[in-house]
Design a protein that fits this description.
single chain, 176 residues, mainly beta, Lipocalin, 8-stranded antiparallel barrel, 1 helix, elongated
Length: 176
C-alpha cells in the first residue's frame, strides 16, 4: 500500500450553480488537501480529501462572504468539506467508480462519481506524480445549504443542483 499526498498547488476543486435560472456562476476552493492510497498493483484503493471552506473564491468578495456565512457553508462553525471513500472500483486502466461519504456543513451523505486517472510519472523534481479528473453533481439542499429566494417567474436566485469538477495531482517521494 502506498500513500500519496494531494498537491494543493496543482489541484482545483471547482463548482458551478445556476443563477436566477439563466446562466451558471462558477467558483472554486483554493485549498484542497488529503491523501490517495494505491494498492501493490498501483490501483487506487482509498481517497481522503479535505476542502478549506474559507478558501472559496467566486471573484466577488461580497458573494464569497455570503457563501462563508451561516446562510450557506457557515465556515466559522464548519471550516471544511470532507470526502472519505468507502469503495473504489477500477472499471478499466484509467477509469474508476469512487463511492464515499461527502460531509458539508455537518451533514454526511453517500456520493458516487467517476474518475479518470492518469498513469503516474516521475516528475522533474524527483517525485512520483499522479493525477485524476472527476465530476459529479449534488443537490445542495441535501447538505443543509438551503438559502435562496424565489423570483416572480418561479426561478430561484441560487439553483439547487451544484456541479463539481476536480482536477487533482498527488505526489509521493521516490523513497516512499
Amino acid at each position: 500500500m502506498t500513500k500519496w499526498t494531494i498537491d494543493t498547488a496543482h489541484t482545483e476543486t471547482a463548482f458551478s450553480v445556476k443563477h436566477m435560472g439563466l446562466a451558471n456562476v462558477k467558483g472554486n476552493f483554493k485549498t484542497t488537501s488529503g491523501t490517495v492510497t494505491t494498492d501493490e498493483g498501483g490501483k487506487i484503493s482509498a481517497v481522503d480529501v479535505s476542502i478549506d471552506v474559507a478558501s472559496i473564491d467566486t471573484r466577488i468578495k461580497d458573494r464569497d462572504d455570503h457563501l462563508k456565512s451561516a446562510d450557506f457553508f457557515d465556515a466559522e462553525k464548519f471550516p471544511e468539506i470532507k470526502f472519505v471513500s468507502t469503495k473504489v472500483t477500477a472499471t478499466d486502466d484509467e477509469e474508476y467508480a469512487i463511492e464515499g461519504t461527502l460531509t458539508i456543513k455537518g451533514t454526511s451523505k453517500p456520493v458516487v462519481f467517476e474518475a479518470e486517472v492518469g498513469t503516474p510519472i516521475d516528475d522533474p523534481y524527483g517525485l512520483k506524480r499522479g493525477g485524476a479528473s472527476l465530476s459529479f453533481a449534488i443537490d445542495r439542499r441535501d447538505f443543509g445549504l438551503v438559502w435562496s429566494q424565489s423570483l416572480a417567474n418561479g426561478n430561484l436566485v441560487v439553483g439547487n443542483k451544484i456541479k463539481i469538477n476536480v482536477e487533482a495531482e498527488y505526489t509521493q517521494s521516490p523513497q516512499a
